[in-house]
Amino acid sequence: MISLGSYLAISFALFVCGILVMIARKNIIAMLLGIELILNASALNFAAYTKFVNNNLDGHILSLFIIVIAAAEASVGLGIVIRFFQLRESIHIDDAATLQN
Amino acid sequence: MFTNTLFLLSAALTIGGALAVVYSHNLMHACLYLLASLFGVAGLYAVIGADFLAATQLVVYAGGVVILMLFAIMLTGGTGNRINRYGLEKIASMGNKKTYFFAGFAGIITSLIILKIIASVLRAQPANKVLEANETTVNKLGVLLATDHILAFEISSVLLLGALIGAAVISRPRKERHD
Q: Which of A33, A70, B47, B101 registers the highest number of CB atoms within 10 A of its CB?
């Protein structure tokens, strides 16, 4: 039951959920939640391949760096969201269309 | 037995939490479901013997990222949203019958392609090793971080410093003009 295939399936489900959140939600913070799900899916893949394919710990190192980068991304992204809210009084993604035309 | 139970619980928590993030109508609840999903991922790390990764996942996500997101939701949740108090659409999906038809068709095609690709990977999968007694990985991880991956380690520290300064600069309060 605990195999590479099941881990890949769980990671795939996480990835699809993250993509769905990023596509279907119109709220910027909700889209950041989807990005966290996607990053977790990739980190889980690295750890699973370390366990089931080769037993050196490089996958764990990569997962650690993914966690670090996710934390940095969340802090900067939420800073941008709060600044946007100060300027526009909204966190709806359709209001962030200044550069569109 | 214990690892099997832990694996099943963690997998259910992970996938259920992720689905709840997709389908929840309330952004605050969605953030808490994300927390549940991240706990599940930490449990999955623990099952395959990545103890340091599990601990880091719990500390960084539960202690840092989710709390940060909750703060941001509460700071921005009050006014000016179109749909409801937290700015979520009432229906998570959008589109009409035509787009559903084409999206379903494209989804079937894509899933067939992915199955075709994954089949070879699964067939070539090495014989699953029996889970031996999990040894601790902290020692080896520390040695690897300080020797083989020292460049990435330093670069990530510079990245964190840049993120700190950038977040402070971006979200600083607006200057009052006195003239």
A: A33
Is the Cβ pair B48, A13 closer than 8 Å? no
Q: What is the CATH code of the structural domain delimited by A4-96?
A: 1.10.287.3510
CB B61 within 8 A of CB B32: no
Amino acid letter for position B132 = E
DSSP string, chain B: -HHHHHHHHHHHHHHHHHHHHHH-S-HHHHHHHHHHHHHHHHHHHHHTT-HHHHHHHIIIIIIIIHHHHHHHHHHHSSSS-SSSTT---SSS----HHHHHHHHHHHHHHHHHHHHHHHHHHHTPPPPPP--PPPP-HHHHHHHHHTTTHHHHHHHHHHHHHHHHHHHHHTPPPPPP--
**ipTM score of the complex?**
0.91
Q: How confident is the model at residue A64 (pLDDT cuts 50, 70, 90)?
A: very high
**Gap from A4 CA to chain B (nearest CA, Å):** 8
Count CB pairs under 8 A between chains A and B. Answer: 201
| A76–B87 C-beta distance less than 8 A | no
Please report the pLDDT score of residue B28 as a whole number: 85
Calculate the average pLDDT of chain A: 89
Residue spans per domain, chain A? 4-96
Hey, of A38, A63, A75, A93, which one would you mutate to test binding to chain B, going by the most B CBs within 10 A of its CB? A75
Mark yes or no for CB contact B72/A47 under 8 Å. Answer: no
Residue B99 pLDDT class (50, 70, 90 cuts): confident
Domain boundaries, chain B: 1-78, 135-172
